[in-house]
Amino acid sequence: MRRTALLASAALLTGLLPLAAAHPAAADDPAPVPVDRFEGEVPFASQPADGIFTWGSDSDDPPTLRFADRADAPEGAKVLSGTYDISGYGGFTHDFAATEPAHDWSAHKGIRFWWDGQDNGRKTAFEIKDGGANGEASELWTTSFTDDFTGWKQIEIPFSDFVYRTDYQPVGGIDHVLGLTRMWGYAVTLPVGAPGRFAMDDVELYGKADQTLRASVSTDAAVYPVREGSTATVQVTLATTGSAPTDDPVTVAYETTGGTAEAGKDYQAVSGTLTFPAGTASGTTRTIKVPTLKDRSAESAETIPVKLTVTGAKAPAETPQVVIDAHGLPYLDSRLPVRKRVADLLSRMSLAEKVGQMTQAERGAVGTGGDVTAYDLGSLLSGGGSTPTPNTAAAWAQMIDSFQLRAQATRYQIPLIYGVDAVHGHNNLAGATIMPHNIGIGATRDPQLAEKTGAVTAAEVRATGIPWDFAPCLCVSRDERWGRSYESFGEDPALVQSMETVIQGLQGRADGRDLKDDDKVLATAKHFVGDGGTAYGSSTTGTYTVDQGVTTVTRQQLEAIHLAPFRTAVDRGIGTVMPSYSSLDIVGDGQGPVKMHARTDMITGVLKGQMGFQGFVISDWNAMDQLPGDYATHVRTAVDAGVDMMMVPYGYKDFTASLTDQVEAGGVSERRIDDAVSRILTQKFELGLFEHPYADTGGASKIGSTAHRAVARQAAAESQVLLKNSGGVLPLKKSEKVYVAGSDADDLGNQTGGWTITWQGQSGTHTTGTTILQGMRNAGGDVTYSQDASAPTSGYDVGVVVVGETPYAEGVGDVGNGNDLTLTPADQAAVDKVCAAMKCAVLIVSGRPQLIGDRLGEIDALVASWLPGTEGDGVADVLYGRKGFTGRLPVTWPRSETQLPINVGDASYDPQYPYGWGLTTLTRAPKGGEATLKALGTAAGAAERAGADAAGRKLVGEARLLVQARIGQSITAAVAKPFADADHLLLTGRYAAAVQKLTQAYRAA
């Protein structure tokens, strides 16, 4: 139902429709056809029934509706009346019954209705639903009207005024053509920001469709790049609604005129008329050929607009352009060093072109992409859930290629760099391989596996035409109340550093030589710096409690905890870095909390200066808007701080204008602009985009492939952390009768978490994968499933209860922002019922630890499953013993929320389970006691001195198994602190000291 909400910019709400009393009908007009009379003939109901229903971004946003008696009703006795107070988005829809045929509106000119004006000057969006399987799987076409009148007025909207919704579309029956022959109803999106009321009556179809509405002329592209001396071919196609032949002739007069190319010198001028006679079949195509001329001079790209004048049909939305490719200029020579190519190109660019390169817009804001050319944009992105329709690999590639084509119409044909948040696989793409979130990858303690997951992600992302990934997140999560904590590899900077092999998986070798390959992408280290250390209650963003808050640290803490992972990333050749929304407060520096996007000392001084970062800095989504001061100050502050490219999704026009003004006024130096643009161009050259700007889809067949899913399955298996296993309940035996319950056992959406298909993710099945329940069945288990444990529990050998969180992302998931760390009452009841009836294993599917201590006594086996991704088979692999449990806690598991924040190394440390805890199956602990530990410590010291890291890690692992066997579930503060410290020492290569700490824990047990 959210698909009817207006999620995009106000650009979709443009234009004031004619507001007038009903016009007299022409003699040959068909009679109006009622859609809604609001006399009660259409009930308040939703799909699949015929009905009117409300929707909104949260529980407060849907409007209230009623059929009200009105003496002044324009038609009948009743009207649809309602009140609203919307903070996000909200409105109502009339969907025709999905069980009945769609409606045919093609005989009519448009749709009209009566509206009771309040003269509030606010815009209301009105959209219609075309094609697809039903009203909730149709194309959305939108327009708007302004309430600047009082009392009843009839609003007439010709179908020609509707434009295709580019910001959000459902999947199904999509062709980007308003066909009008399969219509499913309409929707109204009400204004936000202030309470209001409305009344509406008599929705009906009016007028006779003329051919200019039913017939349209289009070209096969908006831009036609050709090499100098070649001939461009422009295909002109006539299409009609419902594919009916034309009633009247259509003519298209054409001529080459204007542009930057010179007729007779650069091209041969052409003109003429294309004729489509009456009776022409829909889809008929004619061609226009534009020959270009060759000379010997090196030149930038030159444009040749082909003006089309159409009679008898709707003309194309824009004038197509032939572009003679730039040629002969040094920056185009791939044999030259990148630095020389950058210097040559930079020397030729105007200020407007440079500012354009520093600008990143959202795909939904640029429509079909004309502004890519008009504003010389350097980059586009898809925010979470911003996808083409249908959401397929082919559609992604086609969409991005269409935007790249627009960049070819700019003077120097600088390619776009397109970016996405592929934070655990190509998570915006339906059917892609979804990895465990980073917290699960951290639990694997397997750097080679982390690199493999990055490689799979890169291959799937690049195969859809995307060369840039806003990942990995190198935050060191210090408080699991943070809604982004699952984006962190863990609470220990040493663990985060060890997992940065993912950068090589994404980018290839550190020198950047692999970036041009068709299975590598530019990576982004985020969020610089300290986003994982924000204090609870310090956020000033809406209802967030932790996210985008303040990190208060000493300089020593900053360096040791938060900066260390970024130094490693720079050493690994990271291509881009994204600053954090959060503020940094360094104790003793006298500045107080300062937003990271304004910290010149950190971005320019530390990152680019001390660390020697050579890539470019990309801002977070509209992050500069959180800086103090007016808009011009935001721009100047962020750019001068060292942000090279600004993510201004829907504000790119304001940004380019303001930055240009700042440079011309001297507020931002040209030297700073040149540094930023040089950095951006360098990465574009390294990616090979100048030579190959379009998608190489050769690897598309591997997206979601068995081989790729095998990596995700391995990651899911290795991420499982066995916290408790009394009586050897796990692994399960295939001969056992297993009772499975819990909200997350058979829910792929809960299993994949946030940042999956949409920004926040969602429960249910929204992509391709295997749930944990299905994985258990695939493993050959004798399984009975009852989600709420309502089925009888007698006669089973063991129960498996899979519980946990529902998806969230960023500050929306902060504890205190409608979230906590406890299981839902339904999950608690399922645990209690199953564990009281039989031996039980409880799996917690979550992005962070859940408070389970009050139920530990009744639980025989406890598993931290994290958010394992699409491959539930991997979870089943360890449950049924195909693989042993090997995962270890990447964060401390607290006893209570009052302990938070709690982290390895704290002076006071008494958790439920310490950092690094993780029992094993299929591997026996070594025999013996302190004597064995002493021997292991001696051997570990020798391995450390010899640089034999693999041997050292193995020896510490054996000591850990021995100590865990001794501790059992008797985890006291005296045991937990040295045990956690040992895992940190292990990660830093101090193997002897790690065994010493484990020995200390052994003695305290």
TrEMBL record:
- Signal peptide bounds: 1-27
Which of UniProt's keywords are assigned here? Calcium, Glycosidase, Hydrolase, Repeat, Signal
SMART domains, per the entry: Calx_beta
This entry's Enzyme Commission designation comes to 3.2.1.21
Task: Spell out the GO cellular component terms annotated for this protein, sorted alphabetically and separated by semicolons.
Answer: membrane
Q: Where is each Calx-beta domain found?
A: 204-309
Which EC class is the enzyme in? hydrolase
| Superkingdom of this protein's organism | Bacteria
Name the reaction it catalyses. Hydrolysis of terminal, non-reducing beta-D-glucosyl residues with release of beta-D-glucose
Q: Its Gene Ontology biological processes?
A: cell communication; cellulose catabolic process
InterPro entries reported for this sequence? CalX-like_sf, Calx_beta, CBM11, Cellulose_Degrad_GH3, Galactose-bd-like_sf, GH, Glyco_hydro_3_AS, Glyco_hydro_3_C
According to the UniProt entry, its GO molecular function terms are: beta-glucosidase activity; cellulase activity
A Pfam family name for this chain? Glyco_hydro_3_C
Q: Which family, according to the similarity comment? A: Belongs to the glycosyl hydrolase 3 family.
- Its recorded name reads beta-glucosidase
